[in-house]
Design a protein that fits this description.
By secondary structure, the protein is mainly α. The protein is built from 13 helices and two strands. It has a two-stranded antiparallel ribbon. Helix 2 runs antiparallel to helix 3. Pathway: Cofactor biosynthesis; tocopherol biosynthesis. Keywords: Chloroplast, Membrane, Plastid, Transferase, Transit peptide, Transmembrane, Transmembrane helix.
């Protein structure tokens, strides 16, 4: 087939690569596949001279170019292949961008904390009862982890939906604030997260754990959603974050793991320690999370300790509470050697405390710049991860 160019009025062709066949001379035969229906006679547009499988137009032609059938076929196939490749590339890019938006929407640093916490507590329960280990329980543990991630996604997602204006100032990289994810899509995601998490927990873990899961979702909702929006009140916000990330996560996972092993719930010294330690740590996270957001909080009149007391004072308050936490861990390990591996617990927490002191000094030297504050907040999350990593070893 030959792709024919005649007068300017008839040189255009559909973007879907129809096959044009032309004869030489004054008579033009054009074969077009998959054409739309013909309009009324006498009203053919200039760009469509033929729309039947074989239609002839007679009239003067200024120039006629002929090409060999083999060469023209290769040209048409190549053009269509390039068009298909371009369409596939656009689809791949769109899917990749949507996946990236969803991942940022989930706030990966919070997912890491949730995953590490649940894995550490399951591991500790198994270490305490090695004779009861049934490796089929790993499937159930995986379901539990997925449910926790769904609950986490619901809580951080609902917060982003109601914080768009603030996030445009404080966190413009978040997908809704950046315009990469629509509010409607965000609602679909958070509702899917909540529904999926509830179904998984209800089917696999019984009514008590389901009620704890619902409590976590409820607290996450009233934290962000009007008319409650308890994040506006520092004390209420701290208590919600400490309860959800501290008590509910640790108690719920440990309880569910012992139930899966056929055991009644019983507090052990290490689990009591990690629950108290992480609850206080979550309180510190709740305090320091507002440090990078002072500018936007002041603009939207969100009252936080950081806006009231200042960045420097809150940084020292958070560091002081964490140092007290680490000191308590060292003291507990020394006075209860029968319950803890003091040769692991003491040096590990002493090392983490020194790291915190050094990072606080760096923040002071940087004059509390926005980048230094963000780095300090990320370091606190790294300390949070580290505690769960060493927990099964203590």
């Amino acid at each position: 087939m030959a792709l024919l160019s005649s007068s300017p009025s008839s040189s255009s062709h559909p973007a879907s690569c129809p096959r044009f066949a032309a004869t030489t001379g004054r008579n033009i035969s054009i074969a077009v596949g998959h054409c739309p229906p013909l309009p009324a006679k006498g009203k053919l547009p200039g760009s469509l001279r033929a729309c039947s499988p074989k239609f002839s137009l007679r009239g003067p032609v200024s120039r006629v170019h002929t090409r060999s059938p083999g060469r023209s076929s290769r040209f048409v196939i190549s053009a269509c292949s390039k068009a298909d490749a371009a369409g596939s590339s656009i689809l791949t890019t769109t899917l990749a961008e949507f996946r990236d938006s969803c991942w940022r929407f989930l706030r990966p640093h919070t997912i890491r904390g949730t995953a590490l916490g649940s894995i550490a507590l399951v591991a500790k329960a198994l270490v305490e009862n090695p004779d009861l280990i049934n490796w089929w329980l790993t499937i159930k543990a995986f379901y539990g982890l997925v449910a926790l991630i769904c609950g986490n996604g619901y809580i951080v997602g609902i917060n982003q939906i109601y914080d768009i204006g603030i996030d445009k100032v404080n966190k413009p990289y978040l997908p809704i604030a950046a315009g990469d994810l629509s509010v409607q899509s965000a609602w679909v995601l958070v509702l899917l997260f909540a529904a999926a998490g509830l179904v998984i927990v209800a089917v696999n873990f019984g009514p008590f754990i389901t009620s704890l899961y619902c409590l976590g979702l409820f607290l996450g909702t009233i934290y962000s959603v009007p008319p409650f929006r308890l994040k506006r009140y520092p004390v209420a916000a701290f208590l919600i974050i400490a309860t959800v990330r501290g008590f509910l996560l640790n108690f719920g996972v440990y309880y569910a793991t012992r139930a899966a092993l056929g055991l009644t719930f019983k507090w052990s010294a290490p689990v009591t320690f990690i629950t108290a330690f992480v609850t206080l740590f979550a309180l510190v996270i709740a305090i320091t999370k507002d440090l990078p957001d002072v500018e936007g909080d002041r603009k939207f009149q969100i009252s936080t300790l950081a806006t009231k007391l200042g960045v420097r004072n809150i940084s020292f308050l958070g560091s002081g509470l964490l140092l007290a936490n680490y000191l308590g861990a060292v003291v507990v390990a020394i006075y209860m050697p029968q319950a803890f591996r003091w040769n692991v617990m003491v040096p590990a927490h002493a090392f983490l405390a020194l790291g915190l002191i050094f990072q606080t000094w760096i923040l002071e030297q940087a004059k509390y710049s926005k980048e230094a504050i963000s780095q300090f907040y990320r370091f606190i999350w790294n300390l949070f991860y580290a505690e769960y990593i060493i927990f099964p070893l203590i």
